[in-house]
Amino acid sequence: MKKGKLALVGLFASLMMFASACSSEKSTTESKNTSGKKDLPPIKIGVLASKTGALESYGKQTLRGFDLGLQYATDGKMEVEGRKIEVYIEDTETKPEVAVQKATKLLEENKVDFLVGSSSSADTLAVLPLAQEYKKVMVVEPAVADSITGSEFNKYIFHSARNSSQDAVAGAAAIAKKGVKIATLAPDYSFGRDGVAAFKDAAKKLGADIVKEEYADPKATDFTSNIQKIIEAKPDYLFVVWAGANSPWKQIADMKVQEKGIKISTGAPDIAALSTMEPLIGMEGFTVYYNDLPKNKINDWLVSEHKKKYNGEVPDLFTPGGMSAAISIVEAVKKTKGDTDADKLISKMEGMSFDTPKGKMTYRKEDHQALQSLYAIKLEKKEGVPYPVPTLIRELTPEETAPPIRNKK
């Protein structure tokens, strides 16, 4: 009898150990506390992203990068300063009113210490006041509107993504000079209008003339009227600011814009959009990121781990941004010794430099904009790659792409 009882006890103990091991694998955000400190509350991070809607692909890239960034910054432990990291993800559906609802849920129900997001500038601008109301640090990624760290800035906002002015400096450097005539095409909302405004400033400083500005419905699929007006203005270049799956590239090609002597320039987009840009091979412009452009150990790690985790896929345009946002949060918490009080975090994050897949970034003290590298590129055909590849002309340094300070701090 004793043998039987002992066997049952041993079996029960084994089952308990197995159940315990399984429960620790439920989420990548759970881990053992290895610091020796007991009963510390978790650090809760709420991430807003377009899991559906027009910018769904951007949300997917950011979320992948954010997860890998936490893994990298914590050496796979998913804890910092003895506190476990819990991540709560909400879909904004690329709708500002939904973004506000989801952010409020994260703040009130989940009691998050940080907000991160979102994919859309409109969604992000709607949420910024909540960060101030609830006194929580919000790391903005990948939305780019200048107004995030400009007219709508509050001290709780840190912009790890580049902004429209940084894009503009890079875009202007590629094509603008004295006497060059440029037309622009952009979506008619904050992302597009901020982007064009910033580009105009940068291009005019280099001596170029902006002869036509066209703004299209962000959901448009027919750009005939916009493109025809641009053709009639007879610019030397058409500079396009665009985001989303409904890109104008095919129609630009169909209307033979380049055959009319108008060169196209733009920011090289994500891989899905690059696949539509075959007619633009030879174009010179800029990019935020392409997987083989940055030469550093963190980017090597990102490319390698992304391929392992996602069936050989390389990281895309906004993947390193998600990773950079995650790294900056972990680095900030390290600097406060695990304290997530917003004022203490802000004091450490202002002026903070941190290493990323794009090299060193720094949150500028005056407006919390992350200064970072961008890349002047040319689109070229590469053997074995089914889309035009951004090849490096030169890296544009963080100092070179530093945007104007536009807030009233």
From TrEMBL:
Instruction: Give yes or no: UniProt keyword Signal.
Output: yes
Membrane-spanning ranges? none
Q: Name the InterPro entries for this protein.
A: BCAA_transport, Leu-bd, Peripla_BP_I
Coiled coil region boundaries: none
Task: Give a yes or no for keyword Signal in this entry.
Answer: yes
Give the residue range of the signal peptide.
1-21
Which key words tag this protein in UniProt? Signal
Give the domain of life: Bacteria
Q: Which PANTHER family match?
A: LEUCINE-SPECIFIC-BINDING PROTEIN, PERIPLASMIC BINDING PROTEIN OF ABC TRANSPORTER FOR NATURAL AMINO ACIDS
Give the family from UniProt: Belongs to the leucine-binding protein family.
Q: Would you tell me the protein name for this molecule? A: Branched-chain amino acid ABC transporter substrate-binding protein
Q: Which organism is it from?
A: Neobacillus massiliamazoniensis
